[in-house]
Amino acid sequence: MTTTASAHNLLTDNPELYETRFPDPERLAGRWTEDCLRRHGAGPRVLDMGCGTGRDAARLHAAGRRVTGADLSEAMLAHARVHHPGPEYVRADLHGFDLGRGVYDAVVCLDSALLYCHTNDQLDGFLASCRRALSPGGLLVAEMRNGAYFLGRTDLLDAPAVHTFVWQGVRYRSTTTLTVDRTAQLLRRTRVWTSDGGREPVEQRSAWRLLFPQELRHLLGAHGFEVLELHDGPGPRTEPAWHEGLEPGRTTDADRLHVVARLAGAAPAP
Ligand SMILES: C[S@@+](CC[C@H](N)C(=O)[O-])C[C@H]1O[C@@H](n2cnc3c(N)ncnc32)[C@H](O)[C@@H]1O
Asked: Which residue spans adopt a coiled-coil conformation according to this UniProt entry (predicted)?
């Protein structure tokens, strides 16, 4: 069988497919984020970095916030403007962005978008950009994979994960293999897509930074943030999932990591 390697990402190139593969009909991620923002008294201006299809940005907009959604993928932004209107959508790179100084009360970064910062320089670039964008006392809310989960556990690495679903009448099958690159501190993903439409299989590779809770705490402190919450759930992608009324946990052992941090109350960084 021939496999075509692709530099594109089938999911971010096809936002409808993304929402089909990763449905969130109850807008749990947006509701969880709004709950964090309220609990810590965030003001109304929110930047959603790595906003993807825009569904979380639109949920925050519906909750009364003034939202900017930012992403690197033009396809995602185009989809968001049509299907999840309300927020303003702009193209920006989370490795380093300048959308104004002190103009947001919160930056949110959901579903591991932060882990597309692979290197220390990219993480520093992201946090320095957040610091510039936030007003004094502004919040950073992020939700992602937990690097610490992979210490001593191999259940997600032992066998490929296979998912099948139907989109626009075509059955798709994705086979995802995860490997740990200890030197780069990355979780590398190889995903092979097949469909019953007769197309050649497509192989796509991507990676997430394996970020550890105490490393994240240290990085946030170095960039002027005080950590208010750092825990493994409940959250929008935990099992069982978060619902309104549940308090944040205290452990960082399971496979998702949730962080809420506040920028110190000084003037925004130069
Ligand atoms: C896993 S999706 C998450 C989307 C959305 N936050 C959600 O929770 O549904 C990751 C998103 O990050 C975006 N992304 C990847 N690298 C990026 C970068 N360097 N700057 C901005 N966005 C990026 C992708 O285009 C994609 O939309």
From this structure: none
Residue 62 shares a structural domain with residue 121: yes
Ligand 1 mean position to 1 CA, how many Å?
A: 31
Q: Do 55 and 76 fall within a single domain?
A: yes
Pocket of ligand 1 (CB under 6 A): 12, 29, 50-52, 56, 71-73, 76, 93-95, 110-113, 116
- 75-111 pLDDT tens trace: 999 999 999 999 999 999 999 999 999 999 999 999 9
Distance 251 CA to ligand 1 centre (A): 26
CA–centroid distance, residue 64 to ligand 1 (Å): 23
pTM: 0.94
270 pLDDT band, cuts 50/70/90, is: very low
Buried b / exposed e across 112-138, counting CB within 10 Å, b at 16+? bbbbbbbeeebbbbbbebbbbbbbebb
Q: Phi/psi class of residue 146: alpha, beta or left (left: φ > 0; alpha: ψ in -120 to 50)?
A: beta
